Amino acid sequence: MAGLLQACIYGGLAAWLGPRWKLAAGLAGLMCVVQLVGAVGVLLGWGIPRLARWTANLSLIGAAVLLGLYVQAAVHVATRFGAEATAHGQTSLLVIFAMAPWVTGIPLWQRSASTPPETRWPTRFPVVLLAALALPVGTRAWADRPAERWAEQPALLEAAEAAFATWNGERQALPSGDGPAVVLLTPWRNGRAGETVRGEGDNLGAALSEALPLLAPASGERRALVVDVARTRWSTLGGRVGELGGLGPDSNRSPSVAWRPGETRNQSVAPEWWVPLPVLGRGQHPTSFDSVIVDVDGATPLHMSWSSAPTLDADAALDAAVGGGDMILHNMSEEGRYAYVMKGPSGRQGGGYNLPRHAGVTWYLARLALRTDAPRFHEGAAKGLAYMEQRTTDMGDGRAYVSDKKRKDGKVWVGTTSLAVMGAAILDHPLAASWGAFLASSVDEDGAVRGEMDQESGTFPAQQLNPYGQGQTVLALAILVREGHEALRPALERAATYMDGGYAPGGAARLVVLDEHWTCIASQVAAETLGTPHGEGACRGYLAEQKPRTPSSTSSLRASSGAAGGLAEAVVAAAHTLGDPVYIDRSAAFGQHFLDSVYRPTDAHFLGTPATLMGGFRDSPYKLDVRMDSVQHIGCALLGIEAILRGTAHPGNHP
Questions:
Q1: Rounded Cα distance, 563 and 552, in Å
Q2: 455-459, long-range: CB < 8 A, 24+ apart
Q3: I need a labelling partner for 317 at 20 to 30 A (CA). Which of 9, 73, 340, 406 fits?
Q4: Contact 564/515 with Cβ under 8 angstroms?
């Protein structure tokens, strides 16, 4: 019976690991079979002591290998993929201690019960177990192992320009470069990649000379050439996301082709942890490249398969924030509706819509209007407000709210009006007062924001606290009071103070940290309006929990830009409110990350309809869509980062 129970444990473990980690799942499945065979054999009387002992031995060896895999993978994840993976690796190490009794307990008892006392624990068997535990580490099952390296080529830009000229029929001398080289050349025309060709030689010029005659003739509009110079070929996982391509004897893959939708897959490294990798052809080895795209205007280095960004400074941060706003305006309809998502790399508009996010984008445009005083942003924000005005219900008592017609449950989400009123307040829209009165009525006597109103009765029933909505509403009320709506001050004081009480007892004392980025922003404006950074404790707890998600230049993975936008706003708000150098440094890390994610004019060769994506922030090197709320959060964060870098704030820099 003990063997059957252990078989069930191993079988359950294999089922759980199956979709997450194939190697470990297969090992657990094999151990399940061993226990089943042993249990059946014992029931049939097949040499019970000896069979039980071998079943236990094999199970313990398998368990040691499985635990060794876990140890190796956990350490690998924690050290290889940067700060954002550290917490996951540490959690995986803790899982090992929880798993060990379940995978070893019964086999240890089986071995003890089936072995004569005088030979129960021979010295060689613990050595076997230690060897099995160390086997994954010793064989470097998941380690990064460079199989071949090539020298850096300082003349890469000049060589790429000469190669492009030669491809277009203008003979130019090719720089020889430093040492042996392997190059890939990939032509791009009108957003589509042509066939990649390979060249190899004793120097860079020789490698290019071998590859150039293999290219299809230069033709078509918007044509460019991507030159990839191999730096490191890997035997297993290795390299940074976006820089990996493939080298093989019969076919090759440029990173500029590999990191596109439908061309990547997720590789399981540990349970619940996947690494994106390009889909390579048979016989191809993952390879890191230094890459350049070159056209008639010259050569541009590529970083993670897209145009390299400038180094972060105040002007670059402002330019990126303004570019995001221009991208929003370019895709805005005459009725004031924004494009919810623009698909990359095609540049076509996707479906769906979200009214709260519409309100947030309008606030972003209003802040850009303040910061730049550009008429286009004033007009865009006004159209966005008009779109919400058409969806506003007047309650007849001085209150009004924005309602989402998609809701069919008779409820109104307070947060939509909170977001709407922020843009209205700073642009002095007539609806700011009545929208604000509605928000004030959602704050109960204790200061809790009741996040949903029943439309039919016009009342706010008791409901579960929504910290997300609490932060949004406190922020909106604080902006309104700052802009002169003094009648709302009592509601603001109750709601803001509530964030310091039972809502968030000390921040760090909370067992669960929710998404508090709105609370951090509200704390910044509350400090300005009320003199106290209410919600600071909740904000600090949230930022402490989110610290591993700070982008790192040393990480092989990148945080998703969309998900990072709201967190970056919170970090920037804390930097302004608290003046802590830690938050200032983290703000800069986010700023550089966002600059790396911008669609730039030199990316046009990779895009179907470039104008619709220019200035937008792609989510990652392999998720290329741009969503309006991502642009809003990132753009607002960049406005705050600009003020940090300048050391002075202009209207619009702050919420």
A1: 15
A2: 455/393, 455/403, 455/410, 455/411, 455/412, 456/410, 458/395
A3: 340
A4: no
Q: Burial code of 540-560, b = ≥16 C-beta within 10 A, e = fewer?
A: bbbbebbbebbbbeebbbbbe
Whether the Cβ atoms of residue 72 and residue 132 lie closer than 8 Å to each other: no
Rounded Cα distance between 99 and 9, Å, is: 11
Place of tokens 């990547």: 264
Predicted pLDDT of residue 506: 40
Tell me what percent of the chain is helix, strand and coil, each rounded to the nearest 5: 50, 15, 35
User: What does the chain come to in residues?
Assistant: 655
CA–CA dist 226, 257 (Å, integer):
10
Q: Write down the pLDDT at residue 508.
A: 40
Structure tokens at 340: 């919810």
Token pair in block for residue 233: 């070929």
Over the stretch 151-164, which tens digit does the pLDDT of each residue have? Answer: 999 999 999 999 99
Dump pLDDT digits (tens) for 595-620: 999 999 999 999 999 999 999 999 98
Note the pLDDT of residue 123.
55
Stronger pLDDT, 488 or 558, i.e. the higher one: 488
Positive or negative, the Cα torsion across 273, 278, 283, 288?
A: negative
Which residues, including other chains, have CB under 8 Å from residue 322's CB and lie 6 or more apart? 368, 372, 374
Tokens of 454: 């029943």
Name the packing angle between helices 375-389 and 414-426 (round to 10°): 140
> Cβ distance 370 to 426 under 8 Å?
yes
